[in-house]
Amino acid sequence: MPAEAPPPPAAHALRLPHGPFRGPQAFAQCIRDATQAAAEAGWREMVWSDPDFADWPLGERSVADALQRWAASGRQLVLLARDYGVFERHHVRFVHWRRMWSHIVEARICKGPGRPEVPSAIWTATWCLRRLDVEHCHGASSEDPLARRQLREAIDECVRQSRPGFPVTTLGL
């Protein structure tokens, strides 16, 4: 008699953070844990939102490796920012990964007069993280449906008022 396949790992088995976090190290670890969980659970969609992603650990090998394991047909990563200038200087591994997987990454810019404030957050269909105080790196993560819905509404408003940004290649004249 064949053995049954084990059930998919629960969120807590994926080491997803839950509850409040304080400080830049805790925030960076939340990002690392989220990318690992995305790879392990095969999340179909993620939205990463931040004014500039300056203090996200996107240049780290562990994050790039997790994204490589996560990337597959039918996956989508939406990036939303006010400015992507820091990527070429501080997130080189991510920039390289994005070039290879540009067909699953949509980058948007939301800036200018009258535009909504871009939240510092990760949204997925089952979990979210939101930095409520960017300067001091304080926030919370949760599986709560209400928190996820409220975050998605804030992100969607920014996306509605955004334009494509962070091109995969820069053409020179």
Summarize the structure.
With 173 residues, the chain is α+β, with helices and mostly antiparallel strands. The protein is built from 5 helices and 8 strands. Helix 1 runs parallel beside helix 2 (61-70).
Protein described:
By secondary structure, this protein is of the alpha+beta class. It has a single domain, classed as Endonuclease, Chain A. It is 34% helix and 22% strand. An eight-stranded mixed beta sheet has the order 1-7-6-5-2-3-4-8, with helices on both faces. Strand 6 (128-133) and strand 7 form a beta hairpin. Helix 1 runs parallel beside helix 2 (61-70).
Average pLDDT across residues? 90
- Write the CATH architecture name: 2-Layer Sandwich
Which structural category do the helix and sheet elements fall into?
Answer: alpha+beta
- SSE order in H/E notation? EHEHEHHEEEEHE
Percentage of residues in strands:
15-25%
CATH superfamily: Endonuclease Chain A
Taking all Cα atoms into account, the compactness measure Rg is 16 Å
Q: Helical amount among residues, as a percent range?
A: 25-40%
Question: What would the CATH topology be?
Answer: Endonuclease, Chain A
* Count of separate DSSP helical elements: 5
* Total discrete domains: 1
Strand order, largest beta sheet: 1-7-6-5-2-3-4-8
Number of DSSP-assigned strands: 8
Low-pLDDT stretches: 1-12
For the terminal residues, how far apart are their CA atoms?
67 Å
**Broad CATH class:** Alpha Beta
